[in-house]
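Workshop exercise sheet. Pairs work together: one partner reads the sequence aloud, the other fills in the structure field after running the prediction. Swap roles for the next sheet.
Pair: D.N. / O.F.
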Amino acid sequence: MDILVGTAGHIDHGKTSLVRRLTGIDTDRLPAEKARGISIDLGFAHYEFQGMRFGIVDVPGHERFVRNMVAGATGINVALLVVAADDGVMPQTREHLDIMQLLGIREGLIAVTKSDLVEPDLLELVQTDISSAVAGTFLTGRPIVPVSSTTGAGLDELKQRLFEVCCSAIFDQPLPLYRLPIDRAFSLAGHGTVVTGSTLSGIVAAGDVLELWPEGREVRVRSVQQHGHATSSARPGQRTAINLAGIKLDEVRRGCELATPGYLRPTRRLLVELKALDRTPSGIKHRSEVMLHLGTTEVAARVSLRGGTLESGQQSCADLRLREPVVATWGQRFIVRRVSPAMTLGGGRILCPSLEDAATHRIRDLDELCGRLGDPSPLVRLSAYLSRQDDLQGIELAVAQATGIAPQDLPRLMNELRAKQELVRVDSRERQIELHTERLQRLLKTVLRTIRNEVARHQPRRSLPKPTLLTACQTIAKSSLLEVLIDQLVAQKDLVQIGEQIGPTDMQVRLTKQQRRLYDAAWQQLSTGKLMPPTLKELAQSTARQPDDVEQMLNLMVEEQLIIRATDEIAFTRSALEAARIKCRDLFSQIESASMGQLRDAWAVTRKFAVPLCECLDALEVTVREGDFRQSGPNLSVPLIE
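Structure field:
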């Protein structure tokens, strides 16, 4: 069994000395650390005890290096809080304890270092003070072990107590997808770029292909090491070093992540559950700028709150807008710190790691969505996630990132939602699409509202061509899905289709007195003209109106199925076309086919009208063109007016 232990505590309380005495490894590797006698960056060590393998992440205690401490705390299973007997509980003791608590660590114990430097009475007083400081945290009631890194006193007991804590602990089972936040990168002669980190989930082996985030490029694993020795694979709970092929050192840094291809995707926006620390003096204000610590990443963020201010000790849903893209998963813990002066403000867990990046997109049902995405039931979380998706095909890895549900559990949960009729199937021209009922209803409502607004912009029109409506709705969903949505609205009679035009069923044309006069005059002239009606230009001249005004009236007549536009300029009334059909029927009862000239004579029209009239009747399948001749079509005997 592999366990990752992370130290925590105030500067100069003996964390590094304790780790060195436990493992025989000096974790201070930087010259500056040697010169100043303090830890600046993360250190790593390991040892075995009674068959259990312990990896130790030694973190710096100075307040200036808290960001390094947070990066090191990523992925640890057990916290080792270190308090010096001659100092007692200090500011960084409390801050590190707060950070461990916010990061969701549930197991740990306390080591009281330098116990040889104080009298027994003072040592007992310090232990009482520690018990008070950890009350109400995950360390409540945990072992407090006095030790001395100088004499070795208490070290065997500390190892035994740590072993017992780990044996009785119940750790969360991670997903079977690989993920490693990188905390260190370096180049090794003869090998190239090597990255290290704590494996959070999944298994990695030599030859595997992973994705490097936030860029998303594919990289190949050349070899894997654990504690300086080659290994066939690395698992959760292990400190892991990976030699990457085909990547330069300057292309990778702390804050990058390695993951199973397709598992993660970057975002600049996170929906989170945020808690302000009890010791945060003024709480966390709406729109405040903070530094977000997520995994080994540190990025500037703006906090968006519904209530204005998150007071000390309070918890609420929040929307984080990030300056740079990050990758995250559901349930992942994070810390937020004030920029200046630096101070830990609070933290929490990710509820939705893949929100839309549009900065202006406001979630109206934020609190309700948070409640469902944060629910302990995987089925509730899945339903909430699917209710915001337009296509459920190939979403296995996206669901894993967004809800924490393992891909192998997804088919069973999807079938449960189908049984509850929360998922429905709709047919598009490309394929069948499955949607959550909430999403379908929300999309239908949005499309109908958009079509209403678009038709209103073209008043006095009450409908528009379908391509025009698809363009107006193009930001709502993919075109294939929009076709389905419009067809659904027509089927449920929210929209009406008139020929090639579509519009809201209950929208009425509102004509002004001038428009009504123009409409009546145009209709009168078209009816009188019969098969040689006035053109659009002639109608505009005779009514002393602009062609665009006449165009509007003609479009209304098309919607009302009174006329058919043969060309942009020429329109025939349906009664005129019916008369033309009857003459065609009579003509084809005598001859098998007719030329343009013969049809023109039968209709008693000029060539100007004969050509568009023939094309119009071809479109209506009254006639069928064969070269320069027309023959009877399938609709020759079908009346054009009821």
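Discussion prompt: Residues 32-40 have pLDDT under 50 and may be disordered. What would you look at next?
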